[in-house]
Peptidase A1 domain-containing protein
Amino acid sequence: MASTAAILALILLLLPPIALAAGDLNGFRATLTRIHQLSPGKHSEAVRRDGHRLAFLSYAATAAAGKATTTGTNSSSVNVQAQLENGAGAYNMNISLGTPPLDFPVIVDTGSNLIWAQCAPCTRCFPRPTPAPVLQPARSSTFSRLPCNGSFCQYLPTSSRPRTCNATAACAYNYTYGSGYTAGYLATETLTVGDGTFPKVAFGCSTENGVDNSSGIVGLGRGPLSLVSQLAVGRFSYCLRSDMADGGASPILFGSLAKLTERSVVQSTPLLKNPYLQRSTHYYVNLTGIAVDSTELPVTGSTFGFTQTGLGGGTIVDSGTTLTYLAKDGYAMVKQAFQSQMANLNQTTPASGAPYDLDLCYKPSAGGGGKAVRVPRLALRFAGGAKYNVPVQNYFAGVEADSQGRVTVACLLVLPATDDLPISIIGNLMQMDMHLLYDIDGGMFSFAPADCAKL
Ligand SMILES: *[C@@H]1O[C@H](CO)[C@@H](O)[C@H](O)[C@H]1NC(C)=O
Ligand SMILES: *[C@@H]1O[C@H](CO)[C@@H](O)[C@H](O)[C@H]1NC(C)=O
Ligand SMILES: *[C@@H]1O[C@H](CO)[C@@H](O)[C@H](O)[C@H]1NC(C)=O
Ligand SMILES: *[C@@H]1O[C@H](CO)[C@@H](O)[C@H](O)[C@H]1NC(C)=O
Ligand SMILES: *[C@@H]1O[C@H](CO)[C@@H](O)[C@H](O)[C@H]1NC(C)=O
Ligand SMILES: *[C@@H]1O[C@H](CO)[C@@H](O)[C@H](O)[C@H]1NC(C)=O
Ligand SMILES: *[C@@H]1O[C@H](CO)[C@@H](O)[C@H](O)[C@H]1NC(C)=O
Ligand SMILES: *[C@@H]1O[C@H](CO)[C@@H](O)[C@H](O)[C@H]1NC(C)=O
């Protein structure tokens, strides 16, 4: 028996990873909807939600770096969903759990791993966002608690899992961060996502939530507890619609269905691991250059590169953060380039009541008759020659309008990274109207402009 298994394992190892991925699992698809529409007046909220998000990511990164005083150095990364507050400008996906199945929306988060839902008996659960049903483990024939000596429990951060563990004890967790926490225990259930159904998926059954307004999360990170790791999908893709006219569902595709068919325009760059933060489960890319109009900014390897100190730097692609955050030096270059290109416009200052928590804002000229402001083009370059010509609405938008709907203040939707989290983050606004492929097995991140409604 053992030797057969060993030979099989050897044969599998010899096969190219692509062949494995293709045979593993049929693809499945689901849809995403944006939780909070961004319209003039709503940007401050988005920046505030991002603030909570960044605090969570910072906490997670600190723990992953082994720097949190309460966290052991070999937790596989935090990935808690201790989180995402009220959705952080994120996207919901409908899933169902249990037998019979109960449907509910969860936040889709490439920045974390655990799958997590509210469970009865709930001592402290949030009634919002509606509909936010609570799972009833006692009424499901497929529900099963995971033991605390199993591998899934060991993947939880040390600080969150039980201090003492024996064969009969359940895997209780309590994730804390900042002022929030979520407590419960790990279990397995039958999970349905879109048109795919999967037995025995490990998830967190939360019975006590000290974090606001989230009924659950599905982590799509690279850690072992995430949906994509548990189902070994190998790759996934999504396309976020900026035009939400007909209800705004955006497609997300897993496994063999996840591919970019827009061949001629596909750009690709390697997905990286942070060499100084091996436990980090983020999707890192190598941002090597930025152009504002025809000006190439003086980006060097250290502008957005990994750093041996602090939280490791680098650039991640994250579905759960709304705006884009650039490492301070890189941001300063971008800001200066925009300022010099837009010098003929009046910039608003905090003193003039602007900037909605944004940094670089302009007032289109009074009496300009609503004439369009010419905004400089923005392009991001990645290792391997990939270039992203960012659609203007993905980085510059009206944040205030008059009663006739004319934009009165427009801002750059890019901000400097915070001191707590000196990592560059490509947020979901900058991902819109693009088909993004996270090819985990192939180690590549690819993207192409797309009409998301037609995918
Ligand atoms: C989830 O289901 C609800 C209720 O059936 C529906 O209104 C909503 O549009 C669905 N959301 C997604 C992302 O499919
Ligand atoms: C949670 O939702 C309620 C009601 O929608 C809202 O008033 C509150 O501000 C939300 N909490 C957070 C942290 O966003
Ligand atoms: C957990 O404990 C039980 C009972 O002692 C044992 O049978 C099982 O193999 C253990 N599981 C792991 C992953 O150690
Ligand atoms: C944590 O590290 C110790 C020793 O460094 C090792 O024995 C243990 O298996 C590790 N645990 C996990 C979950 O990786
Ligand atoms: C196992 O752990 C649980 C919770 O920590 C405890 O209540 C129980 O007494 C323990 N059982 C044994 C056999 O040690
Ligand atoms: C979880 O931790 C929070 C904050 O530390 C605490 O208030 C709460 O009582 C804990 N809940 C459980 C079930 O341990
Ligand atoms: C900038 O502001 C000044 C003073 O309010 C005004 O005279 C000028 O027309 C404005 N320029 C533009 C381009 O809007
Ligand atoms: C990023 O790309 C640049 C240019 O191709 C290269 O010099 C650098 O080593 C890359 N960094 C990493 C971490 O791969």
